[in-house]
Amino acid sequence: MEIIIHGDKLKITDAMKKYIEEKLEKLNKYLENGDNVRATVIVKVKNHEQRVEITIPLKAFILRSEEAKDDFYAAVDKTIDKLERQIRKQKTRILSKQAKTNIDFSMSAFSENEASDDKKILKRKKVEVKPMSEDEAILQMELLDHQFYMYKDSDTNQIAVVYKRTDGNYGIIESE
After folding, report:
1. Tens of pLDDT, residues 71-107
2. What tens digit of pLDDT does each residue of 49-69 get?
3. Of 95, 115, 146, 155, which has the maximum CB count within 10 A?
4. Which one of 3.40.50.970, 3.30.390.50, 3.90.960.10, 3.30.160.100 gives the CATH number of domain 2-115?
5. CATH assignment of 131-174, among 3.10.450.50, 3.40.430.10, 3.40.50.720, 3.30.505.50
6. What is the pTM of this model?
């Protein structure tokens, strides 16, 4: 990884440069072509705060993080942690895109549990589906404090599910 470090209103010492380089090497395990990647680090001082900004442009997107702390080393640590979280957060998107295009990330750096999208059924439950109106189903769902409730519509005699939408309203899924 090529690392370019700039100081704004401060001189970058060898110790600071070495610390940044060591921390950025931590991200190399996620990069397939680490030699072709350029990381730009800008260190700024404003009053007593040390602001560290790291930008890493890749083929598919740009990794960017910025953090301000009283301590330079704490700011670097926090910025690197944010970058690593960004990579982990987008790993599923990266995995799906990797099948379509050539991405800069190496998936071998993720543990088997992380890279696996296999979901397991942890609980199975049988419920008695009672005939009721939509309003009764909503009331029952609210009483149970659930996000959804399955019932048999008393008007159509079909199985239906009432659910709470993110906007606070309700939705109904009906079977055919």
Report:
1. 889 999 999 888 888 777 766 666 665 555 555 555 5
2. 888 998 888 776 678 888 888
3. 95
4. 3.30.160.100
5. 3.30.505.50
6. 0.53
